[in-house]
Amino acid sequence: MTETPLSRYRALVQSGELKADPMQEQAATQLTTLAQALKGYAAKSAKKGLLGRLLGGGPEIVPPRGLYLYGGVGRGKSMLMNLFYETAPVAAKERVHFHAFLRDIHAEIHRRRQLPMYEDEGDPIPGMADGIADNTTLLCLDEIEVRDIADAMIVGRLFQKLFDRGVVIVATSNRHPDDLYKHGLQRDRFTPFIALIKECLDLLMLDAAQDYRLGRLAGSRVYYAPLGSEADAALNAAWDRLTDNAKPEPDSVAVNGRKIAVSAAAHQVARFTFHELCEQPLGPSDYMAIAAQYATVILKDIPAMTEERKDSARRFVTLIDALYDHRTALVCSADAPPEQIYTGSEGGFEFHRTASRLIEMQAADYIKQRHIES
User: Fold this and answer.
1) Beta strands, E only, 199-257
2) If you average pLDDT over residues 36-44, what whole number do you get?
3) Residue 303, pLDDT score
4) Are residues 29 and 1 in contact, defined by beta-carbon separation less than 8 angstroms?
5) What is the model's pLDDT at position 162?
6) Is 139 exposed, middle or buried (0-12, 13-18, 19+ CB in 10 A)?
7) CATH of 5-205, one of 3.40.640.10, 3.40.50.800, 2.60.120.470, 3.40.50.300
8) Helix 98-113 crosses helix 125-135 at what angle (to 10 degrees)?
9) Which of 15, 44, 260, 292 could form a disulfide with 253 if both were Cys (CB 3.0 to 4.6 A apart)?
10) Distance between CA atoms of residues 146 and 180, nearest Å
11) Which range, 84-93, 125-134, 212-221, 244-253, is most confident?
12) Looking at residue 83, what is its pLDDT?
């Protein structure tokens, strides 16, 4: 019997790997319906309306409606996307993290603008959409998030061209379409894309009973000391658990018109070293933006500090305050237990509160709290 997202999901529940959840089962059912509609369909065969019939002949072939699956962190969206992608009866399909997709799109735009014929072609978007449609009937995009107007405009125009060419899109996001690029500069230029998403994709909110990703931290240590190979291996294992073994991708955090580079991120988990976060000229607004953007931060190599590193210690205090205020989970490696990280006299009282928060952030009650994104 052919596997479907629903049959795979039920098998995982039966084996005990997943706990039964009505909202996840509903999503698996809807994804199964879409998978069945994709049998025998190809993007290049789509003919929409009178123009399509005139150009291609034959009856109108309407593409199956794609799906926009949204909900909070750790509700199982990426897991369900995997089940759908693996069982979808389509040869020409691609699954990619949205940030990697954007990176590739920017690179392709740059490449096309270097071509001699670019001045004649002018707009690279239609040609790019043709190239995608020629090779991709089903495009699965994980974790849609738009953070600047340039990306917003490119995404909106490219999606329109892909829909015109019959490409079926299935996407996940932590946000309802109405909340994408919320409060962004010139957002009114982005609202047509929001309307397009609502017109061309079915929306399904996944508000599962529990946060499955953060639940994977339950019963596990999140603070590893001392530093060394065992602590490094533990952080690597935590990354694999929290991201379903995802490949880390470069990312960025927008703060007041500038960007903070993030070397490794996936599924709202970001990896940093102490040097990257606390030995660079970053301030409270930077740490608040990082804490809002990522539900979990993995922080490597927190050193023992004295007054000689008081600036780094002060930034570390500010970082922990931001993570704590946003209920961001912290998995870290350190040179000493929380109460022994800072031994200087200047700022010692303030760091006492930080040590207390580091201890609290290891507790199950903290880890289970919902991440605050704003």
Assistant:
1) 201-205, 223-224, 249-255
2) 86
3) 96
4) no
5) 95
6) buried
7) 3.40.50.300
8) 120
9) 260
10) 6
11) 84-93
12) 94
Among residues 288, 338, 285, 286, the alpha carbon closest in space to that of 313 is found at 338
Residues, the chain: 374
Q: Contact at 8 Å (CB) between 3 and 87? A: yes
Asked if 328 and 291 touch (Cβ cutoff 8 Å), the reply is yes
195 close to 71: Cβ distance less than 8 angstroms? no
* Per-residue DSSP letter, 65: P
Correct CATH for 213-367 of 3.40.50, 2.40.128, 1.10.3470, 1.20.1440:
3.40.50
Please give the backbone phi and psi of residue 335, each rounded to the nearest 5 degrees, phi first. -80, -15
Cα–Cα distance measured from residue 69 to residue 171, given in angstroms and rounded to the nearest whole number: 6
Which of 152, 127, 48, 135 is CA-nearest to residue 96? 135
- Output DSSP code: residue 239: H
Residue extents of the structural domains in the chain: 5-205, 213-367
Measured CA to CA, the distance from residue 245 to residue 193 in angstroms comes to: 32
pTM of the model: 0.69
Give SS3 for 266.
Answer: strand
Please tell me the distance from the alpha carbon of residue 306 to that of residue 355, in angstroms, as a whole number.
Answer: 14
Question: What is the Cα–Cα distance from 338 to 262, expressed in whole angstroms?
Answer: 25
Cα-Cα end-to-end distance for the chain: 46
Highest mean pLDDT pick, 177-181, 357-361, 363-367: 357-361
5-205 matches 213-367 in fold: yes
